[in-house]
């Protein structure tokens, strides 16, 4: 009882609180004191469908890592209405409004292109200040940097559905395409190969992440350890696209927008390109998707080179440790493939959606004032055959070029799947080679043991302590060699003869099998 009172007094636990008896370290007392002052829900991770207690590590103040932690993803209050801004998101609205978001508005037609840079702080009301000119056939609104205030303003100005806006803000949204009455919404992942750089702690804290660590709670943040020896890593981020029926395209990138923007602007500068001369916004969507796939191609090439080097090491000197490297390679290849395959499904949906006759539900709103009208729902498939048909958002020309994009995706996924199968076969090869080496070692030990077994027997016989023992007492050690030498020679001849007989037998069997296979080939 005295120890319990002393412990309560030492950590200042309120009266009536339950405390475990026994010695308490100062570190544990610090944790209990902090947990007493902090609400319980601060230690809950609400980003998944179930509660998880986060690991509390208040003592590692000097520990550092090459891959620093990513910012916490936007969270939803449990039970909140889908598409509504939660209290947490409203707080983030005030804190990150206009933070590092780059916005461009590009109007173009077959004869003319104009580009405007819009500050994030001046985005509100841009539809009235910078309306689409009469000469412009298409408008591209480009946003680089995920900002809650910017996304909400775009949704209000362009009449985007609030469910789609919610998916934009939550970067764990799976790759998909949703159809609304006057626009469609596309989400996909952008994977790119980046070079690892030695960065100071200050730079890591001030700059956005390019390569993120892999954790089970957030599988999109992955450290690609197979490529680390090659000074490479893979960055994964979400890309959101809106295609409106008035030929307006909205693209929202997390941080890698310039790598998509520059090649497309180069194509827009030329009046001879299809994206410029077609006066069709769906060709711009196709160009964005095609560029995303093109950026992913070097990843597959780097994985292929890494696999080739690992395969050469296995063939020259197989070790058990290589199986760990192969497992890591298989996991990363599977992750890469799992992020590419859904993009192929989206491309095929965009290509075939109007051929399937996808309708819009009766009475759905026109998509405007999306923040006030929550009743519209996206269509999940072509099985609903009631209602009106939307205006085709994907032109026949775009569908033709989407088939080409689908071919690139199929080639990439097929190559990746082949590498995964080869990695599995390489694992089997490692253990087969190691087993064969062990069997050869056992065979050699068996030969040596068999060769010296008679000597062991003779040594034991002549070394017995019987007295009298005439064969030992009346003869010198020469008698031992008179007996041992013929025995060893006989056993050696028997082993050589048996080995030669086994070799001849295996040779006959091999020649017989070869002759049978040749006859079967001629008969076929």
UniProtKB/TrEMBL annotation:
GO cellular component terms given for this protein: plasma membrane
Cell inner membrane in keyword set: no
Domain of life: Eukaryota
Keyword Glycosyltransferase annotated: no
Predominant subcellular localization, coarse grouping: membrane
Membrane topology: Multi-pass membrane protein
The family this protein is said to belong to: Belongs to the CorA metal ion transporter (MIT) (TC 1.A.35) family.
Protein name as catalogued: Magnesium transport protein CorA
Source organism of this protein record: Hortaea werneckii (Black yeast)
């Amino acid at each position: 009882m005295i120890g319990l009172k002393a412990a309560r007094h030492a950590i200042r636990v309120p009266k009536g609180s339950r405390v475990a008896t026994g010695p308490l370290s100062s570190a544990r007392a610090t944790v209990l004191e902090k947990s007493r002052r902090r609400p319980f829900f601060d230690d809950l991770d609400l980003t998944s469908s179930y509660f998880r207690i986060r690991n509390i590590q208040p003592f590692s103040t000097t520990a550092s890592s090459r891959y620093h932690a990513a910012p916490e993803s936007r969270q939803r209050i449990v039970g909140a209405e889908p598409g509504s801004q939660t209290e947490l998101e409203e707080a983030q609205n005030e804190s990150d409004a206009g933070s590092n978001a780059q916005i461009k508005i590009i109007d173009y037609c077959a004869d003319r292109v104009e580009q405007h840079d819009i500050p994030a702080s001046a985005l509100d009301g841009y539809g009235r200040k910078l309306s689409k000119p009469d000469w412009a056939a298409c408008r591209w609104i480009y946003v680089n940097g995920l900002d809650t205030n910017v996304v909400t303003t775009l949704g209000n100005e362009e009449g985007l559905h609030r469910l789609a806006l919610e998916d934009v803000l939550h970067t764990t949204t799976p790759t998909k395409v949703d159809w609304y009455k006057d626009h469609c919404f596309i989400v996909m992942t952008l994977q790119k190969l980046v070079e690892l750089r030695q960065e100071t702690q200050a730079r890591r804290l001030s700059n956005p992440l390019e390569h993120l660590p892999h954790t089970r709670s957030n599988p999109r943040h992955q450290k690609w350890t197979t490529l680390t020896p090659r000074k490479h890593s893979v960055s994964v981020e979400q890309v959101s696209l809106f295609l409106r029926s008035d030929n307006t395209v909205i693209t929202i990138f997390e941080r890698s927008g310039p790598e998509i923007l520059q090649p497309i602007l180069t194509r827009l500068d030329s009046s001879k390109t299809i994206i410029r001369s077609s006066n069709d916004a769906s060709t711009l969507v196709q160009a964005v998707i095609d560029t995303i796939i093109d950026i992913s191609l070097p990843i597959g090439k780097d994985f292929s080179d890494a696999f080739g080097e690992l395969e050469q090491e296995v063939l020259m000197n197989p070790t058990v440790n290589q199986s760990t490297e192969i497992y890591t390679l298989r996991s990363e290849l599977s992750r890469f493939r799992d992020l590419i395959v859904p993009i192929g499904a989206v491309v095929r949906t965009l290509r075939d959606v109007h051929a399937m006759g996808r309708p819009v539900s009766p009475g759905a709103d026109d998509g405007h004032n999306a923040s006030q009208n929550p009743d519209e729902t996206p269509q999940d498939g072509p099985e609903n055959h009631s209602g009106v048909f939307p205006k085709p958002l994907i032109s026949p020309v775009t569908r033709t070029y989407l088939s080409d994009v689908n071919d690139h995706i199929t080639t990439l996924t097929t190559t990746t799947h082949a590498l995964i199968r080869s990695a599995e076969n390489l694992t089997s090869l490692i253990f087969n080679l190691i087993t064969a080496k062990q069997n050869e070692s056992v065979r050699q030990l068996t030969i040596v043991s068999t060769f010296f077994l008679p000597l062991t027997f003779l040594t034991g016989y002549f070394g017995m302590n019987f007295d009298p023992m005439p064969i030992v007492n009346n003869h010198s050690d020469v008698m031992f060699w008179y007996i041992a030498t013929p025995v060893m020679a006989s056993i050696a001849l028997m082993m050589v003869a048996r080995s030669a007989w086994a070799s001849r037998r295996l040779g006959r069997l091999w020649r017989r099998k070869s002759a049978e296979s040749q006859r079967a080939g001629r008969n076929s």
